């Protein structure tokens, strides 16, 4: 970060940041806050946040944290329907956020001006609120550029009859968004919230178009053609400054405690032998899938580190649905934890593959450590990320055909021991080198970070 350092600003400028309260969104927003803080260009950084999934404030003493009421009842906060949750918080937080901003602007004006507001793209309501105060709003989009560009095509795809998805057309290519097939379009199957989802996507795209700029946790060499499309769709400055987590060592924004036995167990395993398995903070599966997955892991004969998050298996607390005889069958060849220090796990010499749901953070973290993937996207942007991993960057194997133990074992062996996996490992190592270059002086992310700072200071 040294060579991004700025002189102490002539006029003290405060930054306001507002993350979406989900793990895959809080982490990159706090990473961005740390990146901007380390430049020394801003006098202070305030993180406005909901009470629900409140960030671990004590781990970030250099920021001011301001909680706002989110109006969620216990049942609403516990819902598994992310779309309902996001719709509700956008509605509930409008008033409290406006009040909070009004107070901040009134008191800040005397000592230090507020430079701008940076909010997650999913906080679409915040554009109108910022406009009301004449405050520039920059959007942070925490997923891939490719998936966001796909959202902008939704109205056209509806007109063409490709959305909503029909079973008979799932394998059709989407000509406007190569290499995506209809099945890869970033939709979400929810109980009854299809309309809510469409409206959330439309509002998010509209509010981003009216924003003052767009920050990406991605980099030019990885998503060059999607970035070109984004610059057309969103005619505001685009700043691909990622990967965020590479600016600093392991992050400290985890909502769950990391089980460090993951690392001591990995220390006992041979180099590149372990398949790391984790489907992130939201994905779920049923008991039958869990059982097939467990036996597939056992039958693969590869060592594995498996994150079974409480709540991963619907209706279970943690491991009670593991099949009888499983632990005996694996003879210590596997280690199961509730939550792992993922970045450290991926960087460990024993980790040779990552079976992932292709959340964008996981995908980027895997690229940065040169670990090839088995892609099993669940919903939304994960499908787009998965398609890019398998078909564009060719650094992962798509997991097709539903959870079945034979398929699990075969796919793991294809990645971990066969030539196919070795070729993917070579290609991902090449991408990993690109990451290292892009953040050094003269690299693209380095350049965009400098322009972002100058841009904010110009407000
Ligand atoms: N993560 C972690 N430990 C785990 C699983 C995940 O620390 O056992 C972190 C991971 O490093 C990533 C984030 O949780 O930064 C998950 O974000 P992602 O976008 O991949 O998926 P989401 O949880 O949003 O579906």
UniProtKB/TrEMBL annotation:
Pfam families: UDPGT. Signal peptide: none annotated. Keywords: Flavonoid biosynthesis, Glycosyltransferase, Transferase. Gene3D superfamilies: Glycogen Phosphorylase B (3.40.50.2000). GO terms for molecular function: quercetin 3-O-glucosyltransferase activity; quercetin 7-O-glucosyltransferase activity. CDD domains: GT1_Gtf-like. It comes from the Eukaryota. GO terms for biological process: flavonoid biosynthetic process; glycoside biosynthetic process. PANTHER family: GLUCOSYL/GLUCURONOSYL TRANSFERASES (PTHR11926), UDP-GLYCOSYLTRANSFERASE 76B1-LIKE (PTHR11926:SF1464). Belongs to the UDP-glycosyltransferase family. This is UDP-glycosyltransferase. The lineage of its organism: Eukaryota, Viridiplantae, Streptophyta, Embryophyta, Tracheophyta.
């Amino acid at each position: 970060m040294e060579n991004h350092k700025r002189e102490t600003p002539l006029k003290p400028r405060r930054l306001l940041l507002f993350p979406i309260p989900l793990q895959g969104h809080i982490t990159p927003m706090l990473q961005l806050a740390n990146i901007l803080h380390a430049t020394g260009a801003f006098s202070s950084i305030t993180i406005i946040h909901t009470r629900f999934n409140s960030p671990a404030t004590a781990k970030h003493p250099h920021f001011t944290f301001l909680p706002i009421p989110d109006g969620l009842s216990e049942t609403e906060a516990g819902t598994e329907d992310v779309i309902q949750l996001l719709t509700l918080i956008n509605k509930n937080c409008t008033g409290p956020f406006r009040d909070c901003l009004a107070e901040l602007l009134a008191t800040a004006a005397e000592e230090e001006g507020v430079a701008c507001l940076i909010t997650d793209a999913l906080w679409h309501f915040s554009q109108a609120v910022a406009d009301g105060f004449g405050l520039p709003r920059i959007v942070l989009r925490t997923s891939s550029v490719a998936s966001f560009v796909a959202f902008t095509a939704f109205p056209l795809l509806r007109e063409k009859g490709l959305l909503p998805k029909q079973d008979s057309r799932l394998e059709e290519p989407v000509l406007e968004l190569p290499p995506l097939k209809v099945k890869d379009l970033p939709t979400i199957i929810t109980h009854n919230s299809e309309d809510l989802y469409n409206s959330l996507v439309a509002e998010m795209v509209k509010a981003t178009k009216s924003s003052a700029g767009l920050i990406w946790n991605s980099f030019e060499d990885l998503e060059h053609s999607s970035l070109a499309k984004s610059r057309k769709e969103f005619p505001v400055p685009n700043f691909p400054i990622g990967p965020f987590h590479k600016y600093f060592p392991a992050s400290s924004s985890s909502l769950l405690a990391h089980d460090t036995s993951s690392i001591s167990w990995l220390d006992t395993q041979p180099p590149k032998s372990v398949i790391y398995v984790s489907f992130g903070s939201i994905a779920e599966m049923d008991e039958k899938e869990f059982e097939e997955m467990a036996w597939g892991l056992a039958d693969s004969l590869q060592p594995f580190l498996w994150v079974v998050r409480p709540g991963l298996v619907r209706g279970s607390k943690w491991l009670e649905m593991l099949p009888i005889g499983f632990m005996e069958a694996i003879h210590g060849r596997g280690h199961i934890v509730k939550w792992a220090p993922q970045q450290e796990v991926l960087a460990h010499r024993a980790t040779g593959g990552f079976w992932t749901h292709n959340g964008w953070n996981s995908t980027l973290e895997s690229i940065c450590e040169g670990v090839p993937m088995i892609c099993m996207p669940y919903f939304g942007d994960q499908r787009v990320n998965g398609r890019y991993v398998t078909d564009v960057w060719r650094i992962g194997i798509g997991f097709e055909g539903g959870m079945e133990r034979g398929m699990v074992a075969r796919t793991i062996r294809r990645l971990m021991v066969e030539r196919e996996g070795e070729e993917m490992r070579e290609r991902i190592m090449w991408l990993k080198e690109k990451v290292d270059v892009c953040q050094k002086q003269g690299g693209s992310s380095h350049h965009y970070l400098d322009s972002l700072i100058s841009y904010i200071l110009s407000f």
